[in-house]
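BUG: 3D viewer hangs when loading the predicted structure for this chain

Environment: internal workstation, default settings.
Expected: structure renders.
Actual: progress bar stalls at 90%.

Input used:
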Amino acid sequence: MIKVAGFNINGVRARLPRLLEWLEETRPSVACLQEIKCQDDAFPANEFEKLGYKAIWHGQKGFNGVAILADGEAPVEVGRGLAGDPEDEHSRYIEADVFGIRVSCIYLPNGNPQPGPKFDYKLRWMERLRDRMAEISAEEIPAVVIGDYNVIPFDRDVWSPAAMSGDALMQPASRDAYFRLLADGWTDAIGLHNPRGGVWTYWDYQAGAWQRDHGFRIDHALLSPELADRLDSCGVDKAHRAREKASDHAPVWVRVRDAA
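Structure tokens produced before the viewer hung:
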């Protein structure tokens, strides 16, 4: 089995003890991190090496940033950043081959406040992501695009649709862009296995959201047809959100069978 996980860590250095705990306790084959919030030279790769994880990363000072860690095998980088906007300097995308799978780690723009330029950027970014995912699909390879999509797909994916109705995460345009990815043949693993919803991956630090379980699902793992056929199980490591100085996200993961 190969286990691929995604975790918006909300600051890799600030949450390093929690991150190392999670890696040791759950031991994903591949861990995709978002919001590492550090420049390349400050990424704590040596700490992961001590646990047997080799890493590639795409950092940025103070915010954004993505990384791919692999247990005992060096990820072979395919690319970083998305084509289509030469002025986009945000570190939000990194792609690698590891364990026979194409792994893309994404941190999709939030888009708030909407309407406005940040929301327009979000939608343009989603179109660029779709273009890249179409290129991956054309290769007909087992692939996963995992991370923080900043999209709540359905009303069943949020504790209160009314409370979030004005948010960029729930706008019809955001959802439509996400649904186009699914229509292109990608499988939302956690959505597929939880058709009734009620599964959250994010709880705000404010207003007692965690204590009241006022969360929503914005961290997703989309599988290509070639990998969806091998899906064994998936889940959310919710308990890790309860720990001291935790990220406001919980890790999501998929477990897939080895290639025949």
